[in-house]
Specification:
Rossmann fold; 309 residues; Glucose Oxidase, domain 1; alpha/beta; globular; 6-stranded mixed sheet; 8-stranded mixed sheet
């Protein structure tokens, strides 16, 4: 799958809020953060709008803004302002034909998982599991996070994923196979589970499945991951990469954490698993290209991406 066109200094970046609103006072900080990257932000008008105290407008309002940014010839990339809740309401309003005909860098994570799935799988270009403007770029945009973000969205050639300093990539050898290769797809586990049965259902066929989560008990990791297994999703994947499981609650045996739970669910499958990949609700946060050809090697503890433009 091809990467969308790179950004050049001074390019205009559309900022959208397809999920929850962000605090009004953070908009100015976000604009400054985007400008420090060398880009000029163009804002949707719903960034701090509240619908029912949960979402940044109705599903149609939020979906229309995503469509408008992709259609706008001035806008060269679309960054999400934040995550939260409510993107499930947006999906039916996205114009996938329009988006496919105007491939652009699209970034976000967490509740933005829905859009990453829909755009990557239905529009046929790479999207990015990457920092959002609010909370990441405004508050925790350290040098490693910035380098990973810009290095991924503007990659000129194949590259190796690098965890932040001090974070070792872990390996679970669930079978005989030590390596796997295929397109990377995935995101937040609760959204992956909820996608089953929808037109944007996660499909890791002959690819690598990525999973991360935040502030949930292990019992929900069990439920959602087994839902993926029962739906046949996990069996389609050649490999599994686990991101951070941040601020989780262990409501079971003390040694049965989120990684151990998923490893146990996959223990009878010949699928390599890597964990502790720092792309999710963590700091620093590294960027992953969703849909890009990914090669994982559990012997070398490496993850590499092929770049096609």
């Amino acid at each position: 799958m091809k990467f969308p066109p790179k950004l050049n200094p001074g390019d205009t970046v559309g900022i959208v809020a397809p999920s929850a609103p962000i605090p009004t006072e953070k908009i100015t900080e976000g604009v400054a953060a985007i400008r420090r990257l060398g880009y000029e932000p163009k804002l949707s008008d719903n960034l701090d709008k509240s619908y029912k105290g949960l979402m940044a407008g109705t599903g149609k309002e939020r979906g229309d803004w995503v469509n408008r940014m992709f259609a706008d010839p001035e806008v060269k990339a679309v960054f999400c302002a934040g995550g939260g809740d409510g993107t499930s309401r947006v999906m039916e309003y996205l114009d996938y034909d329009l988006i496919a005909s105007h491939p652009k860098i699209f970034t976000g994570y967490s509740d933005i998982t829905n859009l990453l799935l829909g755009i990557t799988q239905r529009c046929g270009f790479v999207t990015f599991h990457a920092p959002v403007m609010y909370s990441n770029m405004t508050d925790h945009f350290d040098d490693e996070t910035i380098a990973s973000f810009l290095g991924a969205i503007n990659a000129d050639c194949d590259f190796e994923f690098k965890n932040p300093k001090g974070f070792e990539i872990g390996v679970i050898k669930a079978g005989k196979t030590a390596t796997a290769r295929g397109p990377l797809i995935g995101g937040n586990l609760s959204l992956l589970s909820a996608s089953i049965g929808t037109p944007y259902e996660v499909d890791p066929t002959d690819g690598i499945l990525y999973i991360e989560e935040v502030r949930e008990p292990v019992s929900k990791i069990e439920k959602w991951t087994y839902h993926l297994r029962n739906a046949g999703v996990i069996a389609k994947a050649k490999g599994i990469i686990l991101g951070p499981f941040t601020d989780m609650t262990i409501d079971c045996d003390p040694d049965f954490d989120s990684v151990a739970c998923i490893a146990d669910i996959c223990s009878d499958m010949d699928v390599p698993i890597m964990f502790n990949i720092q792309s999710g609700h963590n700091r620093p946060m590294m960027t992953l290209p969703m849909g890009a050809e990914c090669e994982m090697d559990t012997n070398k503890k490496t993850i590499r991406f092929k770049v096609e433009r």
